[in-house]
From TrEMBL:
Keywords: Flavoprotein, Oxidoreductase. Residues 23-347 form the NADH:flavin oxidoreductase/NADH oxidase N-terminal domain. This is FAD/FMN-binding oxidoreductase. It holds the Pfam family Oxidored_FMN. The keyword Oxidoreductase applies. SUPFAM superfamilies: FMN-linked oxidoreductases. InterPro entries: Aldolase_TIM (IPR013785), NADH_flavin_oxidoreductase (IPR051799), OxRdtase_FMN_N (IPR001155). GO terms for molecular function: FMN binding; oxidoreductase activity.
């Protein structure tokens, strides 16, 4: 790994960075993944996605990471996610990538399978490592069916196929989503993975699926494309993935040639990634900084920290000290597409607007996602973001649309 000290801006955030694969990021600011829900009813990218990401690339971010791109059309996180399992949508994906490259940015595709948290199809039983349902009273979580050996191996092939197609479409690489309670995160967690075969039962077996996918993807996309992984620092649940086990997973990922590890945390039951975490963590400027500092003592793999980052001086400090190599921001980009320009000039991200809440963390976390998705639609249409108003106005802004999208998703 080599690092360029040629300043693009006077701040550490403005220095370029060469990833191990050879791809150079123009600065250390990353637009982290958010679920845009801007695909069409069949799972193809749309011009809305092109225009949204072009705005972010024009705003100066060094790297853009897409929201969920499904590896299997039989399981969607939300309606209007995009899907990439064959070549039918390659032209649309190519236009998406070109929209970013036209402004000098880099883009990687986040590929994912929801596992037991799949929203669609509504009438189909979801799958997971074990038949363990979410512990979310009142959320209507369905009990998943434990995957067979053949189904597990099929998903290795599906992640690999999606990665190959992503680079064929012009993306600079992929990010494998192994955080936030989705399928690969479910395999990593002792709470959701209670298998007793070679895919569970101990740390090594629980991380086997992730490692085999990473190994297969690296071999398939070659050494010169970005291979990133998003990993929980912990699940923030008693008995879930611990920080010590997460460090061991990170070291295994480093050995497989991972170019960039994004550190996050939490899941549907404990959404720490959205700030709904114990006070000792949520009060920090960066939710998972303690884990990043601990992990850096064990590995030299490029690290990216996401979650709660707002203060430009703090970001510059952790880059300068080498705690992490890049910083990821998500929700602030929904209110200020040119946020990277401000950060490079030393101006912190604006205070996040207050999103209406009902007091139940899983519901409030979803309100956050839906509220920001409404901003994406405005940005993609060339309109400035705006506050949606109170609880009822917010519900009306996305509730009917969500119902229609669910009913018409193919």
């Amino acid at each position: 790994m080599t690092q360029s000290n040629t300043p693009i801006d006077s701040s550490p955030l403005g220095t370029s960075y060469n990833l191990p694969c050879g791809v150079t990021l123009r600065n250390r600011i990353v637009k982290s993944a958010m679920s845009e829900q801007l695909g069409d009813r069949y799972g193809s990218p749309t011009t809305d996605l092109e225009q949204l990401y072009a705005a972010w690339a024009k705003g100066g971010a060094g790297l853009l990471i897409t929201g969920n791109v499904m590896v299997d059309r039989r399981a969607f996180v939300e309606p209007r996610n995009t899907v990439l399992e064959d070549e039918r949508f390659i032209p649309a994906y190519r236009r998406w990538a070109e929209a970013i490259h036209g402004h000098g940015g880099k883009i990687i595709m986040q590929i994912n399978h929801p596992g037991r948290v799949a929203v669609l199809p509504l009438l189909k039983r979801p799958v997971g490592p074990s038949a363990v349902p979410l512990q979310l009273p009142g959320m209507g979580a369905r009990k998943p069916r434990a995957m067979t050996e053949a189904e597990i191996k099929e998903q290795i092939n599906r992640f690999t196929t999606s990665a190959i197609l992503a680079v064929q479409a012009g993306f600079d690489g992929v990010q494998i989503h192994a955080a936030h309670g989705y399928l690969l995160s479910q395999f990593l967690s002792p709470l959701s993975n209670i298998r007793t075969d070679s895919w569970g039962g101990n740390e090594e077996n629980r991380r086997r699926l992730l490692i085999e996918i990473v190994r297969s993807v690296r071999q398939s996309i070659g050494p010169d494309k970005i291979l990133s992984v998003k990993l929980n620092s912990s699940d923030f649940q008693k008995g879930g993935l611990s920080q010590s086990e997460s460090i061991n997973i990170a070291l295994a990922l480093e050995a497989e040639g991972t170019d960039l590890l994004e550190i996050s945390g939490g899941n549907y039951e404990s959404p720490a990634q959205l700030g709904f975490a114990p006070d000792s963590h949520a009060a920090n400027d960066a939710y998972f900084i303690d884990f990043a500092e601990q992990l850096r003592q064990h590995c030299r793999m490029p690290l990216m920290l996401t979650g709660g980052l707002r203060n430009a001086a703090f970001m510059n400090e952790i880059i300068k000290k080498g705690v992490v190599d890049a910083v990821g921001l998500a929700r602030p980009f929904a209110m200020k597409p040119d946020l990277a320009t401000d950060l490079l000039a030393g101006r912190s991200a604006p205070e996040s607007p207050r999103v209406p809440a009902v007091g139940y963390k899983p519901v409030d976390a979803y309100m956050q996602l839906a509220w920001h998705a409404a901003q994406f639609r405005r940005i993609s249409a060339g309109l400035p973001p705006k506050h949606l108003g109170g609880l009822m106005k917010t519900l009306l802004a996305f509730g009917p649309r969500m119902g229609c999208n669910i009913a018409t998703q193919r």
